Every structure is written in C-alpha cells, then in structure tokens.
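O-antigen ligase family protein: structure tokens wanted.
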Amino acid sequence: MIKKLFRWMVPFLLATLPLTPIFFGEKYYPPFLIALVFFSFTRYGTIKIIKKRKRLLVPYVFAVLVYLMYTIFSPEIISSLKILERQSSLLIIPLVVIGFEWKKNDIKIFFITFLAALLAIAFYSFIEFLLFMQNNADWIEYMGKQNSSKALYLQYKFPHIIKVHPTYWSYLILGAIVMILADLNFKDGRNLKSHLLLWLFFSLNLFLLSARTSILIYVFINCYYLFLLIKKYRRQKWIIYSVLIVLSLGLATMSKLPLFKVKYDAIKNDERSTYWPLAIETIRDNYFLLGEGLGQSNKVVRNYILENGDERINYHAYDLHNQYLRHYVDMGILGFVSLLFLLIGHMLPIKNPLDPVNFISFSFLILFGLALMTESYLIRLKGVVFFSVFSSMISVLNGFLSKQLKFN
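Answer:
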C-alpha cells in the first residue's frame, strides 16, 4: 500500500504543481517541488529510465545551456542569475516526468487531479466573489459610478479578490478545456453530459477573466476541435451543428461582457505596439545575430521610456510582452532558435495534426505558441512551471502515441 501511495504521489503532485505559484504564491512552490523530486527519485529505476529516454530531454537541456551561457556573459550578472534561477524548473520538472515509469492509471490520476483542483478553486473564487458583492455594496456602487459600470468593475475585480493574475489563470483553464474536449465521447451519454457541463463552466470562467490572447487561443482550439468533428462525424450532422451553435452562443455572450469590450477597444493603444518595433530595431542593430545580454531587453524598454517621457516611467518592471522578441533581444539568434526548439521539440514524434489522437498535443502547441506572442511567461516562475509540466507530459504522451515508448 505504501509503495502504491508513493507512486500515486508523483502524478498527484505534478498536477498540483502548476497551480501552486499561480494561486498560492511562489513561496509555497519549493516544498512542492522538493516533495515531487523526493517521491520520484526514491523509486528504483528512475535514473535508468532517464538514460533510456534522454532524447526527450534535449530541448530542455539546450534551452537551459543557452540561458547559462548568456548569464555568464551578461553585463548585469545579478539580474541574470535571478532569471537563470527560475529556469532550473525547466530542467528539474522534465527530469521527473520523463524519468517516471508511467502507466495509464497514472496519467488518469494526473488529469483528474488537475481538473478537480482547478474546479475547486473556481468554485471557491465564485463564493469569495459573491461574499465580496454582499459585504461591499456601497463601495461597488461608488466604483460603478467611477467606471461608468458596476458590471465592468466587478468583472475586473473577480480574479483580484483571490489575488490571481487573470492571464495565468486563463492558461490553466485552457489546459483544462483541452483535456475535457480530448476525453469527450458523443456516443456515451453520461460522458457527454458531464464533459459538456465542465466545458461550459470553464468557458464561463474564461470569459469572465477576459484575457484577450487566451480568448483567441480558446477560439482556435475549439475551431480545431470542430474541424476534427466534421472529419469524424460527416454523416451525423446534428453533432456538428450542436457544437457550432453552443460555441457561437458562447462567443456572442462573451462579446457582450463589459471588460472584454474595454480590453478590445484598448488594443489600438496597447504598449506592445510601441515596444515591439523597438525590439525589432534593436535586433536589426545587432545584425540579427547578437544579443544584448540576458535580461537586457528590460533595459532597452526602460531607456526608451526615460527618453520619451512615457506615462509608464514609474513602473518598477519593464517587459516587451513577447517571449520571441525577448529571447532574440537578450540572446540573439541562438536564443531565438533555442526557444523554437523548446516549443516544438516535444512535438517531433508526431506528424499528423488531423489525427484525433494528436488533438491534445497540437492544442497545447497552439496554447504555448500564441501565448508566447503576447506574454513573456518563460521569465516568470508561474509560466516556467506551467510550460515545463505540460510540455514534458505531452512529450511523454507523444512518445507513447508514436510507439517509441511503451506503457508498463
């Protein structure tokens, strides 16, 4: 029994790991990681499995080595070391995942634990939201007048009541939606009802957060799923029409939400429209080869703000909000290549995106790839952990699907 408990702790802790820095704070992350490493490496044969599957680690090792090299040559070694410290999870977590002797039941435990934990947090957040509305009616009324709409203020306040960044919460929800759609079975009535309810619940949660890029990713993933449905159920058109109607109604509802309207209208004045051309100009000045040094993209943005009197002059942190450009500015062409390899390296065993068994893999590729365009999430611990857990899980899953690995 103890042996089984030790075994189950690995997928259980792994499923809760990406939630820890996002919902509970980064200070609680190290104990979870230490426990995960302990339960993983106290099992007999872990090192042997890692040696056997070492090819799967190549993208992560290459990325961390590039980070290490540019840390050594950085003009500001202290700030670079802080960035490098966060990248340790980019190697430790894949080592645990790839070195684990996975069985089908273990993968089931991972998915169920992740969905159950995210569902519990969502319910908790809604309860806290209702209590906030009940206990702060006068303040809400005042803020409603200041913001021209109580609904706008409440929607903005929703994630901040439990002190969570809406963008990173959205990434977790998108991960849950991918899992739900992948396990959806239209021929099993019980499965269909439960999975559709979960899909609707998490979709509502995502719409309330109104993170623009996450909603775009949501549309892409659902359209991809719909395309696979059309391919699979050509003769059962009711399935296709039902999904299309539900998706259309959901998107129509989302477009009416006040916070989404405000964020959509703000796109034309977004700081990214200023910073991205600045980054491209810096890359061009470095002959498309060299980098400024790890973490120096922040300095490029800061200098621009100081010179041009930007209203964000009092910011304590500066960001390009684009991981591709950040890698290129910081680490040159080598950094950019390492990022692309990290992004698609776990996809290499998979060839056909139109095969339904590859839906999870390509959906997460859409999620990772598009999210990197508007958020430099690989410089933040919560983003590194999220990416490390799911990309390495997909790497192992792809190995099984391509028959290069076998379930024990």
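The chain has a mean pLDDT of 82. The two ends are 19 Å apart (CA to CA).

Cheers.
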